[in-house]
Design a protein that fits this description.
The complex is a heterodimer of chains A (about 350) and B (about 325).
Chain A: E1 8-15, H1 21-30, E2 37-42, E3 54-57, E4 61-63, E5 72-74, H2 75-84, E6 93-97, H3 104-113, H4 115-120, E7 121-131, H5 135-141, H6 143-151, E8 154-158, H7 165-178, E9 183-186, E10 251-258, H8 263-277, E11 281-289, E12 295-302, E13 305-313, E14 322-329, H9 333-341
Parallel strand pairs in A: 1-6, 1-7, 2-3, 2-6, 7-8, 8-9
Antiparallel strand pairs in A: 4-5, 10-14, 11-12, 11-14, 12-13
Helix pairs in contact in A: 5-6
Chain B: E1 2-6, E2 15-21, E3 24-29, E4 33-38, E5 40-45, E6 50-55, E7 62-66, E8 70-74, E9 80-85, E10 93-96, E11 102-106, E12 109-114, E13 117-123, E14 130-133, E15 139-144, E16 147-152, E17 159-163, E18 168-173, E19 179-184, E20 188-193, E21 198-203, E22 212-214, E23 220-223, E24 229-233, E25 246-248, E26 256-261, E27 267-272, E28 277-281, E29 287-291, E30 298-303, E31 309-314, E32 319-323
Antiparallel strand pairs in B: 1-32, 2-3, 3-4, 4-5, 6-7, 7-8, 8-9, 10-11, 11-12, 12-13, 14-15, 15-16, 16-17, 18-19, 19-20, 20-21, 22-23, 23-24, 24-25, 26-27, 27-28, 28-29, 30-31, 31-32
The chains are: A alpha/beta (about 350), B mainly beta (about 325).
Chain lengths: ~350, ~325
């Protein structure tokens, strides 16, 4: 598809009510960057946003078939984005502000599954704002808070001035347990350098690894977790010293590493994994080294949506290896590791 | 076959509606401009952002809704009057009905104007995505998630729900009022025969169906959404059930984006993603090229009363009038 360059970038802001979304939005809109934004706010959105182009929309989930989470998109975004795109030149980028309880997956999937939206707009990144003071409480109440963290490319741990260092460490450890690979910034009043949250290309295969260079180098603490929990009351084997304080999380990360792979084994395998485990996979990303192929092969996915392509040549100093990360619920680490290993060339 | 006029627009102008208002060629753009051609081109601004447009039943007025919350009625001279105003709302949909009735919708609410007054307000549980009047009587079809609701405007809100799972993105009646058909998110049409609510599934499209048009007596339903116009037969008592549709104007990879049936004979104008327009006889599929190509996909087409002139518009600031006589 040769439509990549002209597509309008879309940034999605998630986070609980009071986490600082409106403050961040106003910062984005008021800063002197010469860019014009169209802002899509939910119907219950706080007022006080100063922008020429604000569109209200009610978050409407379309289930495409069988009620499968992998097939859900946001009907309101399909309508609004299509309408907006008819008047070119009015804006350079779109920001979608979601309600505190919004599930980020249908928002993201809309930009891959709807042909019209996909032709005109490109998801840039999902930003999660976290209220350092209230996060642990909200995490206990609802799976949405956890989903928003797990899904994010960039996490702003906001209102850090309202908590002490110990509590901040607890919150950060909990966030890192759910999502070790997102970029995380500590902020007060959503004061982050906008370059760190806009134009990230987090879903762009060309750039998928550029924006998070240490993405797979993280040593995964979730390895020894049992990911087969069905309920909220798991006994835990958490981080030393924080036991009893770090919230239980149902979402974990699995990092896999290997050498050269056989594309004839890997491609059917990754397709099968996303088909079968898609509902439990929130995000996946990987760089794959195929035997005898000079190019890096990159993959990224959301639930059952999977994209893969050759990216660029392996550098001379670069160690050729295959690395793959899954963030999801109830993922079977042992099985994934074993079947991934079987893809070796 | 000759293009007798081209409108002159900015190349980013998206032509939302092209046709004839009281037989005067008019073009409405997404920016809210109305271009009128009578000898020369005149431009009127009617909205700060136009979202929808529909011709009145007597074809004497163009009804429009905008990002500015206004519902307007424009006459053949180009002068517009505001029928209703809801500041801060986007008027997403508009429909024209019998006795000069006008319906418009924003979000989950639809309103009906009869005799210049808001005669009814209908609120749905889900967003209204399609709006159409029945050909007779003040009965409104509203498409929404999981089906179509039929509301009588004047009888205390009696409602019939035609259920079909999934997202319905548009709705219209057959000219004889016997059928209701919706367009769907999942590349299909869904129809109901009203007397017994029997389902009709019309599927197999590679893309969404965004443009539909009935042949003069409702014998055929022409549709976009494929690399040919898919034309469903509605002449039998069971509509298209059990019958194969015709595929007209097949052009390889080019997608059909717009269709408009001739007002007098069973011929359809088919517009494509590259700006091409063909004139195709429904009976035998015989084709005549009216326009070879342009900058952008054809978005709208409309015939004058006699069926001699076809107005068209595209996504990229193109529009014109073709003489087919």
């Amino acid at each position: 598809m040769n439509q990549t360059s002209s597509r309008i970038p879309v940034t999605v802001l998630t986070g609980y009510l009071g986490a600082g979304k409106t403050t961040l939005l106003n910062r984005i809109l008021s800063e002197d960057h010469g860019k014009k934004y169209a802002v899509i706010v939910n119907e219950f959105g706080e007022i006080g946003i100063d922008n020429d182009l604000i569109v209200k929309s009610d978050e409407e989930i379309y289930e495409m078939n069988n009620g499968c989470i992998c097939c859900t998109v946001r009907g309101d975004l399909i309508r609004v984005v299509q309408k907006l795109m008819r008047r070119q030149g009015r804006f350079d980028a779109i920001i979608v502000e979601t309600t505190g309880l919004a599930d980020p997956a249908p928002v993201a999937q809309t930009f891959f599954m709807d042909e019209d939206v996909r032709a005109k707009a490109q998801l840039d990144a999902v930003i999660a704002l976290v209220d350092a003071k209230h996060f642990l409480l909200s995490l206990g109440d609802s799976p949405e808070a956890e989903d928003q963290i797990a899904f994010a490319d960039v996490i702003l741990l906001n209102k850090t001035d309202l908590v002490d260092a110990t509590e901040l460490a607890k919150v950060e450890a909990t966030i890192r347990r759910i999502n070790p690979r997102a970029e995380l910034h500590h902020t007060n009043r959503s004061d982050v350098d906008l370059a760190k949250i806009l134009d990230r290309g987090a879903f762009d295969l060309e750039r998928v690894m550029v924006t998070d260079p240490q993405f797979l180098d993280h040593h995964d603490e979730a390895h020894d977790h049992d990911h087969d929990h069905d309920h909220d009351h798991h006994d835990h084997h958490g981080h030393a010293g924080l036991d009893g304080n770090v919230h239980d999380t149902t979402i974990g990360t699995i990092s896999l590493r290997g050498g050269d792979l056989d594309p004839k084994k890997f491609l059917p395998w990754i397709e099968k994994v996303t088909q079968i485990d898609g509902p439990d996979i929130l995000r996946l990303k990987g760089i794959i080294s195929f035997k005898d192929d000079p190019d890096r092969f990159v993959v990224q996915g959301i639930h059952m949506i999977l994209e893969g392509d050759s990216q660029r040549e392996w550098g001379e100093d670069e160690k050729r290896e295959s690395r793959l990360v899954f963030i999801g619920r109830n993922l079977n680490h042992e099985k994934l590791e074993r079947s991934f290993a079987a893809c070796a060339a | 076959m000759v293009t007798i006029a081209n409108i002159d627009l900015d190349e980013h102008a998206f032509v939302e509606w092209a046709g004839f208002v009281d037989d005067v060629p008019m073009f409405a753009t997404a920016d809210g401009d109305l271009i009128r051609i009578e000898g020369e081109q005149t431009v009127f601004n009617i909205h700060d952002g136009l979202l929808c447009a529909a011709l009145s039943e007597d074809r004497r007025y163009l009804l429009t809704g905008g990002e500015d919350g206004k519902v307007c009625r424009v006459d053949a001279a180009g002068s517009s009057s505001v029928l209703a105003e809801q500041p801060g709302d986007w008027i997403d949909l508009i429909a024209a009905g019998p006795r000069e009735a006008v319906a418009f919708a924003c979000g989950r609410e639809a309103r009906v104007i009869v005799d210049s007054e808001i005669a009814a307000k209908i609120t749905l549980e889900r967003t209204i995505e399609g709006l159409a009047f029945a050909p007779k009587g003040l009965r409104l079809a509203l498409a929404r998630y999981d089906g179509v609701e039929l509301h009588w405007v004047n009888s205390g809100g009696s409602m019939q729900f035609l259920e079909w799972k999934g997202a319905h993105t548009g709705v219209f009646f057959s000219p004889d009022g016997k059928y209701v058909v919706s367009t769907m998110q999942e590349n299909a049409l869904h129809g109901w025969r009203l007397k017994d609510a029997r389902h009709m599934r019309m599927q197999g499209y590679p893309s969404k169906v965004k443009s539909t048009s009935w042949s003069p007596k409702g014998k055929w339903l022409a549709t976009s959404g494929a690399p040919a116009s898919i034309v469903w037969p509605f002449s039998g008592k069971d509509g298209p059930m059990g019958k194969a549709p015709k595929e007209l104007g097949s052009m390889g990879k080019l997608q059909v984006t717009c269709v408009s049936c001739h007002p007098g004979v069973d011929v359809v104008a088919i517009g494509y993603s590259n700006g091409m327009i063909l004139f195709v006889k429904i009976d035998d599929g015989q084709e005549v090229a009216l326009r070879s190509e342009g900058r952008g996909p054809i978005t709208s087409m409309g015939w004058n009363k006699s069926g001699h002139l076809l107005a068209f518009g595209s996504e990229q600031g193109e529009g014109g009038i073709i003489d087919v006589s």
